[in-house]
Amino acid sequence: MTPADAKKKISTLREKIARHDELYYRNAKPEIADFDYDALKRELADLEAKFPEFATQESPTEKVGDDRLASFTQYRHRARMQSLDNTYSEQEFREFHQRLVKLFNREELAYVIEPKVDGLAVSVTYEHGKLVRAVTRGNGEEGDDVTENAKTIHSLPRELKASKHAPIPDVIEIRGEIYLTTEEFQRINKEREEAGEELYANPRNLASGTIKQLDTKEVAKRKLEIVLYGVGFCEPAVADKQSGYHALVKQWGLPTVERYWCATGIDAAWAAVNELDKLRHSFAYATDGAVVKLDDFRLQREAGSTSKAPRWAIAYKFAAERAETRIKAITVQVGRTGVLTPVAELEPVLLAGTTVQRATLHNKDEIARKDIRIGDYVLVEKAGEIIPAVIEVNLKRRTPSCEPYQFPKKCPVCETPVVQLEGEVAMRCPNLSCPTQVRRRLGHFVSKGALDIDGLGGAMIDDLVEKGWVKEMPDLFRLKRDDLLTLGKNVGKSTDNLLAAIETAKTRELWRVIHGLGIPHVGVAASKDLAAHFRDLEKLADAKMEDFIANKTVVIAGIGETMAAAIVGFFAEPRNRAVVTELLEIGVKPQAPAAKAAGGSTVFAGKTFVLTGTLPTMTRDEAAEKIEAAGGKVSGSVSKKTSYVLAGAEAGSKLEKAKELGVAVIDEVEFVRMLNA
Ligand code: IVH
Predict the structure, then answer these.
(1) What architecture is domain 74-317?
(2) Whose CA is closest to 525, among 269, 214, 82?
(3) For atom 10 of ligand 1, which residue has the closest CA?
(4) Which residue has better confidence, 470 or 64?
(5) pTM above 0.90?
């Protein structure tokens, strides 16, 4: 490779990696498998080693991925949070040891082998045994302060347990990972599926999306967990070995790894890695590798670190299970908003303990990018319990009869020509009467997260649509008992129960009706925000762009430009607007959220507060209750969107952040005055 070619390649790799870093660390929505990401990084590192003239401190190979978001207050770690070098190869794992052997001039090095937890890195600080802060890794130097959210984790004690053998240091930064159990991940995804919301691909993404939520109450609804395994800063020092430190963490009452191994020499360490591999599926958290660390802290210090990772530790990663199989066909599914999703129909293949027959191909661009064709042999990957994905085509097995895939020009259900909306990757069927869209829209409308009508399952909806009794949501409220009785399977009592359930649904909360309409991008949380703001369905339907975004600023917290455009666009469609009018005409009376506080005060409607420090006469929880009762919101961190910071004695970084951003700071006296105004 010529230097010019290398330069070009290095620059494209850097751009690619930067994009995937952003997707993984900031958006919690990675597009490629870890293994492929690691391969890109490896390719870049190799090129930079070969062509050192193009190496720079700014390269992603020199830095840790950055997870910081503008909406959080940043906090500087006392000790830097590093990343780890990783490998998938036994040989490289052994080379790691050989470097240390050379450095220390002895073979018999003692290691600790621990699970590599696939969560998101966090640093928890205890001062004099009291939990004071939880901060994400950020860029390694400073991270996002997620203390309030971390406090929703039940297993994270507010205070360390002291004992004779486990003295408590003045200040300690303990490192670990926040994660979700598979059960909790599946519970949340199921709820989202029922509510018609996008699913999360794996527990790690969901955990990382959750800890970065601005609404602590929403965080509390998901049972985040934590596991702590490392020491960052500690004053005074309390342990001289990683193994001793593990024991301390446990004695302080902190959740720690279920198992770790002590091994001397690389053969014993390798045996431990393999044992860990066999056991890892029984751990509470997803484990994607083993971390091998020199046990002795003194030797760790002597080995030192590169700019990014320590020389005294390495992660051996287990590649996710992959298998090769053939694509028999590509089918296209129609969603409730008309989005067409291509799906690979596979020759059944056994993968990570289950038979896989289908894998999503995401969209038209994704198929083109990977040049996936019907008849191709492809690599399918399934990490643990997660949705299978097509990774790449095995071109060696491609036959000339495999022609490039042509995305259908017509909807596979109603044959309406498909369209692509500006700025979207998805192809859509624009026909709102497309039978599949109608079925899915109705299914969403009656689902648990919307009108919650019992007795209206998929088969029943199919019947109602097929008979032509229901074409749109309002038709559900026009169903006739005599008609339903002719369906046979639904006689007498169950018909009456169904009709009663439909009648009851007429007075559901406003947010349920808003959510049930199926406006693109509008999920449960946004529906609640909209209901609280507009308090009336027609007012929402008639809202203009400037009711959402005025002078380039967001009017309703949580409803940004994309969502606003989706809402306005949705109701601009006469058919959607007509649904609203008809629902109201037929007697649907959505219930606006109760006017809050004694006397129905809404003095704080649309205002977001951040609380910090100790207030003179009330606790922060009491203040939060008063704010919410008066229509306001409480957030865990200060951003430009914060209306007021209510500060008491010994207010910390939030107060500084408020000053920095020019957010109004008030004390309790002012707060009470506003409340009573
Ligand atoms: S030690 C300086 N131990 O993996 C040493 N890290 O890919 C740094 N991780 O940033 C960390 N399990 O977030 C260590 N048992 C474990 C770990 C672990 C998961 C994470 C950690 C680190 C990342 C590197």
Answers:
(1) 2-Layer Sandwich (3.30)
(2) 214
(3) 83
(4) 470
(5) no
Structure tokens at 662: 């020019």
How many other CB atoms sit within 10 Å of the CB of residue 76?
Answer: 11
Q: How far is the CA of 229 from the centre of ligand 1 (A)?
A: 8
Q: What is the CATH number of domain 510-585?
A: 1.10.150.20
Report which residue type is found at 641: K
> With a 6 A CB cut-off, is 116 part of the ligand 1 pocket?
yes
| CATH superfamily of domain region 435-505 | 5' to 3' exonuclease, C-terminal subdomain (1.10.150.20)
What is the 256 CA–ligand 1 centroid distance (Å)? 13
Looking at the predicted structure, is the pLDDT value of residue 346 above 50?
yes
Q: How far apart are CA 356 and CA 378, in angstroms?
A: 13
Long-range contacts of 350-358 (CB under 8 A, 24+ apart): 350/323, 351/321, 351/322, 351/323, 351/380, 351/381, 351/382, 351/388, 352/320, 352/321, 352/382, 352/383, 352/384, 352/385, 354/382, 356/323, 356/325, 356/380, 356/382, 356/388, 358/388
The pair of three-digit structure tokens given for residue 501, joined into one six-digit string: 């359930």
CA of 83 to the centre of ligand 1 (A): 6
* CA-nearest residue, atom 23 of ligand 1: 83
223 has catalytic annotation: no
Q: How far apart are CA 523 and CA 511, in angstroms?
A: 10
Check for a shared fold between 74-317 and 608-675: no
64 near 83, Cβ under 8 Å?
A: yes
Question: Directed axis angle between helix 574-585 and helix 561-572, to 10°?
Answer: 80
Q: What is the DSSP letter of 425?
A: S
Tokens of residue 438, six digits: 């109608």
**pLDDT beyond 90 at 550:** no
| pLDDT value, residue 491 | 67
Given 16, 102, 116, 130, the catalytic residue = 116
* Dihedral angle computed from the Cα positions of residues 487, 489, 491 and 494, in that order, rounded to the nearest 10 degrees: -110
- Are residues 180 and 223 in contact, defined by beta-carbon separation less than 8 angstroms? yes
Chain segment 424-448, per-residue pLDDT in tens = 778 999 898 899 999 999 999 999 8
Q: pLDDT at position 13, please? A: 94
Q: How far is the CA of 142 from the centre of ligand 1 (A)?
A: 17
Please give the distance of CA 240 from its chain centroid, rounded to a whole number: 37
What separation in Å is there between the alpha carbon of 230 and the centre of ligand 1?
Answer: 8
Sign (positive or negative) of CA dihedral 425, 429, 430, 432: negative
CB-based contact 352:322 (threshold 8 Å): no
Instruction: For ligand 1, say whether the CB of 310 is within 6 Å of any of its atoms.
Output: yes
Residues linked to residue 428 through DSSP beta bridges, in sequence order: 339, 419
Cβ of 262 below 6 Å from ligand 1? no
Domain residue spans in the chain?
3-54, 74-317, 322-412, 435-505, 510-585, 608-675
Q: Does residue 82 have its Cβ closer than 6 Å to ligand 1?
A: yes
> Does any ligand 1 atom lie closer than 6 A to the CB of residue 84?
yes
With a 6 Å cutoff on the Cβ, whether 113 touches ligand 1 is no
**CATH (one of 2.60.40.10, 3.40.50.720, 4.10.320.10, 2.40.50.140) for 322-412:** 2.40.50.140
**608-675 topology per CATH:** Rossmann fold (3.40.50)
Cα separation, 348 vs 328, in Å, equals 10
Ligand 1 pocket mutation, candidates 87, 112, 124, 291, criterion most atoms within 8 A of CB: 291
Q: What is the largest CA-CA distance in the chain?
A: 90
Query: Domain spanning 3-54: which CATH class is it, in words?
Result: mainly alpha
